[in-house]
Amino acid sequence: MSCSEKTQRASTCWTVNLGQGRIPHRHSYCKQQRIRNKIAVPVYISFILATTLICWTGSDCQISGESFIQILTLNNIHRNREATIIVLGIIMLTVSILGEKIISKLNIIAVPALILLCIYGMVTCLQDISFMELVKASPVEPISLAEGVAMVFGMQAVGSTISPDYHRFCRDRKGSCLAAVVGIIPYCLFLFIAGSVMGAATGESDISVLIAKLGLPIIGLIILVLATWTTMACDAYTGGLAITSLLHLSGKKRAAATAVAGIVGILLAVFDIMNYFTNFLDLMASCIPPVAGVMITDYWPLKHGKVENWEERPGFHWNGIICLVCGVLAALFLPFGFLTINGILVSGILYFLTSKLASRTETQS
């Protein structure tokens, strides 16, 4: 996993607005309205989201834990790795259990601090290496452009799909759009660039080791711990929502479900989930974007961006399921293009065509 990817994951959760604004629906309800009835539980979406968010929680917990271990080591304090990750993970998990208001307050501190740290890191690195040397720098194991795009999309896939969890608190659609376009995209691009510059200049891919080499080891690592804390809090919180939907639990069980998601994530961190992270990103780039393809098509072209146009359908909506599966298969097996874009386009176009065909058939009958 590259430094720029780890640096971005130390930021707040990526969100791409789908236009809902302040709609009083949980993320699971918004997405699953395309494929569920009053009884059927949308196992695929809930299971995939819960699983991936738990894995993200584990990766964030591991990055934060290893950064904290670096802080202790710099002060000649040596503690057991597993015990440190577990204790720190439980402390961070409390924020997720308390809810999104605490998460936003933590972000107010962590996000500006991370930006300042990245600026300092880039300035420090550019004093030791020229711009042309940065451009010519090549990784130990280079990958193709298609693989790089797939990894970036894989990182963003889950956050983009769960964005209604947080955008539902915006006052209107304009606020949601501004939050995604102005508040998130420039920030994430900056973090990718900063991570690339610092990684190329230092030759390090381990973000905790890299930060320790920048000249402000303790302060920098504390900021990194705070930044990954906010991201872990978002992932565990939304993972809890996915579990409540998967098991059809009431909203009162959200805190307990969040605790379960967080604890499983902490255990994954203990067992070094980061070693399998690239494969995990590839899988997410194939399985999650087709969900967004169906969501976007259903909300914009078919419902014209108006939530009041949607109504619950009787029976099981096989159309959405089949289009979703086709999108995943396209992402996995089409030999051309970018797998993530292939998945979105195939699922979205198929859903649009089959929905129009079904509507015309109903009208004629």
UniProtKB/TrEMBL annotation:
Membrane-traversing stretches: 39-59, 83-99, 106-123, 143-163, 175-198, 218-243, 255-277, 321-353
Family (UniProt): Belongs to the purine-cytosine permease (2.A.39) family.
Major location category of this protein: membrane
UniProt cross-references to Pfam families, sorted A to Z: Transp_cyt_pur
Taxonomic path: Bacteria, Bacillati, Bacillota, Clostridia, Lachnospirales
Membrane topology: Multi-pass membrane protein
Domain of life: Bacteria
Listed name of the protein: Cytosine permease
Localization of this protein: Membrane
Entry-linked InterPro entries: CodB, Pur-cyt_permease
Keywords: Membrane, Transmembrane, Transmembrane helix
